[in-house]
DNA sequence: GTTAGCACTCAATCAAGTCGAGTGCTAACA
DNA sequence: TGTTAGCACTCGACTTGATTGAGTGCTAAC
C-alpha cells in the first residue's frame, strides 16, 4: 500500500507532533507548525482520507487526530530514520557499563531492594564511607590468558573485585610478584592515600606495563567513590504510586526529582548515621519539601564501627512498628554480612 | 503530658485504623470496630479533647479524625510495640542477602538501568541462558584466613565469582589441589550437568570438607538460576508515572503487578531473542493487557551466539527512532563487554 | 484541486443542587 | 459527674445541566 507524497508528509507530521506533545493533532496545527503551504481545510481532507485508510484515529468527533497502531507500524517500517546517538548520550551509556560493583556495593543494592519490597516505601541506603579504611592486601589472580581479577582487601573487608585485562604473556609468577609488591607498598594505608601513591610511585617498577598500572589505579579509584555520585542507593521508587498525597502526577514527579538530586537525602542520612535508630515525622524534617513525609532510619556497622545508615521515606501515615522491626532485622543482617567480610584477628 | 487510659486507647484505635485504611476515622467506627463499650457520642467527646490537645486533626468539619504528627510522635515514643518479624518475612529478607551477583548479572542490571534512564520507558533485560555453557575452569583463591573466592569460568566468560567461607587451616596448596580436581572433573561439561555431578561424585575425595563442597555446589547452582526467579531484570518502573494511560492509580498498580509477575514478559523476551531487532506495536502484542503498549527489543551475544534479549516497554506513543538507536548502541556495548569476558582461542 | 465559510459535535470546564457521613451541642438519664 | 440519645448543622463527594471552544465535515465558490 503506497501513499501519495503529500499524505506521507502529513502522516509524518502528525506522528512527530503527537510523539512530541501527546495531544491529538488538529489540521490547523499541521498547516501552521509544520510549514505546509496548504490551508487547514485541505489538510482536513487529506486527514479524512488517512483516517479512512486506517492510519489515523479520532478519539472523538471534535478532537484532532492521533496516529493509529497501523501508522506507527508504517512509520517504523518505512519512514523512520534511525539517527546515530550524539556523543553525550553515547558517553552516558558507556559510563554506566564502565564501573563494576564491589561486594559491598552489591550488599547495599540488595538492602535497598529488600527494604522497599518489605515496607512498600521508598528506601535509601547510605554507602559506607570507605575513604579511611586501611588496605590489608592486594591480590591479582590470573583467570584466563588475558584476564585477571584484582582483589583489594581492607579492614572493612573486600571492597573491590574487578576483572582487568592484562597484556598477553604475563606469567602467574609475575602477577604474584606484582601482588606482593602492591601489598608491601600499600598495606596499612588508606584507600585515599593509596590512590595517590600509586600514580606517582609505582611506575618505575613496572614501567613496561603502564596500561596495567592504569587499570589498577582506576579500580582503586572507583572503590573509593563508586559511580562518582552521591553515595545514596534508592530503592522502590515505583512505590510512589501508593502514596496518596501524590495522586496528582505533577506532585509525584516533583518529589521524584527531589529524590533523584539526592543532596538532601545525603545530608539526612549522614546525620542519621549518628543514631542507632531514628524516626522523623512530618514537620520534624528540616527540609520543607518533606513536611508531610516521615523518615525512619537505622545504621549498620563494619568492623564494629558505625559506617553508614539506611532507611525508608514515605507518607506520615506508615506502619511505624512494622517498619522499625524490619529495619532492626535488616540492621542485624547487614552487620553480620559485613562482619563476614572483615577478618577476625587484625 | 499524660493522657487518661481511655484517651490513650482511643488515640491508639484512631492511629491503628487510619494506618490500616487511610481514611479519616469517625467516632462510630471506633465504637463499633474496636470493641469499645461506649457510644459514639462519648467517643466524640473524647476525640474533641484529643483534638484540642493537638493529637488529632480534622481535614474538614464533617469528616472523621486523622492522627496529627504529634500523635505519631507520641505513638512512636510511648505506645508502639515493636513486634518480632514472623518467619516468612525474616526468611524473605535473608534470602535477598544470600545470593550474590555474578559479573554477568551485574552487567544485566546496568543495562536495565541505562535503558530506562535514557529512554524514560520501563526496561526489561532477559538474563543469558547459561544452562548450556561449557565450563572451562574452576579456581578457588584464598583471600584471607577463612575466606576464598570461587571463580567459575565458562565459554561464555566468567559467570560466577562468589565469596565462600572455608574451614580454618586450609592451605593455599590444598585449595589449588581442589581447584585442579574440580577443573579436571568438570571442564567441558555444561553448568547444568556439573551441578548434578558434583553432588554425587565429589564427596569421596574431600569428604572431610563437606561444608566446603556444599558451598561450591550452591555457588554453581545460583549461577545457573540466579535468584531462582524468572530471568528478567526490570528497570525504571517508576517511569510509569509518565505513562498518560495510567493516570488512574488503579490501572497503574494493575500494570505494575503484570510486570512483576514476569511470566508474560519472560515469554515475550524469549521469543524476541530470535530477532536482532523487533518492534511490536499495540495490538500486535499477543497479550491482551498490552494492547495499548509497544515493545521494542534487541539482542546481545556472548561468544558469537545470541543468548538473550533486552528492550523497553511503554505506551504506543514513544519515540521509536530514538529508542531503536539507543537499543542499537546498547547492543553493541553489551556485545563488546560480554565478549571481553569470553576468551579468544577456545 | 484548493479554499473560505459555516453549522455541527463533543470533551472539558464550571455552577448549582443533592446526598450523606460525621460532627457539636443540648437535654435527659444513671 | 459521666454517659447517651437526639437533632440540627457542615462540608466534601457526587450528580446534573449549561457553557465554551477546538476541531471537524460539508458545501459552494474560486
Provide the CATH architecture of the largest domain in chain A: 2-Layer Sandwich
The number of domains of chain A: 3
What's the oligomerization state? homodimer
Secondary structure class of chain A reads alpha+beta
Helix count of chain A, per DSSP?
Answer: 12
Q: Strand tally of chain A, please?
A: 10
Question: Approximately how much helix is present in the residues of chain A?
Answer: 40-55%
Per DSSP, what share of the residues of chain A sits in E-state strands of 2 or more residues?
15-25%
Low-pLDDT residue intervals, each spanning 5 or more residues of chain A: none
- The main sheet of chain A orders its strands as 7-3-10-9-8
Task: State the name of the first-level CATH class of the largest domain in chain A.
Answer: Alpha Beta
Task: Show the largest interface.
Answer: A-B, 89 and 89 residues
What is the residue-mean pLDDT of chain A, rounded to a whole number? 84
Major beta-sheet overview of chain A:
5 strands, antiparallel
Coarse shape of chain A: flat
Distance between the termini of chain A: 77 Å
Assign the CATH superfamily of the largest domain in chain A: GAF domain
Rounded radius of gyration of chain A (Å): 28 Å
Helix-strand pattern of chain A? HHHEEHHHEEEEHHHEHHEEEH
Q: Could you name the CATH topology of the largest domain in chain A?
A: Beta-Lactamase
Brief synopsis:
Two copies of one chain form a homodimer. With 346 residues, chain A is an alpha+beta fold.
